[in-house]
Fold:
Amino acid sequence: MTALQPTRRPRLVVIGNGMAAGRALEELIRLVPTRYQITVFGAEPHGNYNRIQLSPVLAGDKTLAEIMLNERAWYTEQGIELHAGLSVTAIDRDQRQIIAADGRSTPYDVLLLATGARPRRLSLPGAGLAGVQTFRTIGDVSQMLAAVQAGCRQAVVIGGGLLGLEAAYGLRQQGLDVQLIHLKSHLMDRQLDAPAAQLLLRHVQALGIQVELQAESEALLGENGRVRALRLQDGRILPAELVVMTAGIQPSTELAQAAGLIVERGVVVNDKLQTSDPHIYALGECVQHRGICYGLVAPLWQQAKVVAEQLAGRQTAQFTGTIPATTLKVTGVDVFSGGDFHAGPGREVLTLNDPQAGIYKKLVLQQGRLLGVVLVGDTRLGPWYLAQLGQDVSTLRDDLMFGPLDVAA
Structure:
């Protein structure tokens, strides 16, 4: 008799080793532990870590080891071949293989793109000077901490969004003089309205961070190849031995685009999180789903679950989108926002503003449905409000500001 040949397991190759990819692998292994032969390529020389916790590492409150989600040993235990510190340079869809930076080719039956996003660097004169960097990876944090150890005392952070505030806070905790530059009229302008941002500004200033609003950067000035100052468009010169750009992120789509996949702002995916090639799935910050690119953790976790279920053969699993919500705690003040919190025709706005206590609440309703929420100072009801977004809350209207009794207590 002829011996039966063992059935070859399908080859799953994952490009990217960030939080979304890591969660998808965890879910997949939980569902079908041995279904795939898995290979992972990650550009960073680490296992999987919690990017959200980079700020506490910068502030000195946590170590790199404490924010690791999956050390290298985990991949070995799961039978996953991990190539950490090795990026992928091309996808050959005809041959169904990827080409890595060292020239090796790896075949796939199914490919998962999780290339994430890259920070936007402002194209200012002097942007290439030493000491000018972004805030995105462990490597970025290590460079900032090295600058502190080398005696850096003055830092400028460009961008007053979530990342900018976290970077400014972390550097201030390290004892630096920090100036935060923001182009718009108030901090976190995408997530907060003006009154909420004013409360946040007061708190940030109380931490010793100097904030310049409606300030536009013009050029970075250097000496001996290192940054020494930032010049604003109004002519002011801000001394800086370290400049951190936090001007948003941009989906990393170059690989997908070069491979001929449909790419708009992000890699276009359907509700199954398949790209225009049914053998290639994508998730995380690199994707565009129903016209939206998500940069927050909650929707990425949902995407990870759907991708895992799809790969496990559960074809009914779908990602239909989610309402983005933002939480900020790192600066010591709690901030939460979700949905559409802007006033407008036909909308009812409920507010509670107590500057003395540092508390602000804003709820926006239309035809009895909760559209948006902003909370500063007391965010305990944030998850409850998030669950009510889009729902008819007209019967709760009189007590809506205080939430359900069991939560408010």
